[in-house]
Write the structure tokens for this entry.
Amino acid sequence: MPRYLVMGTYSQEGMSAAMEEGFASREEAVRPLIEAMGGTLEAMHFCSPGAGFNFVIQMTAPNADVAYSMSVMGTANSAFANGGQVVELKTGAEADAVLANAAEAHAKYRAPGEASA
């Protein structure tokens, strides 16, 4: 199942609210959202300086990164400053497979101006 790293920074208002409610409350709020999209929250971490956070999720849904972004980061009261970022994580073996596929595809590509093989 694909894994994603979600990274973000709280707005001033979001950070104040998280501090008031307690940071553990944020994990309690995120977990049902991820589960509703068919995923699993593996870990959630808070970072300083910078009022940041990140979490790792597993999700089978196509375009999981887009689904998460649209459901949380795009809302007016999401408490995110500067949106956020969702990236797919790959193991070394998965990255090697992507590299092999890319090399195979590149071998079949003809750039403009190149002679046909």
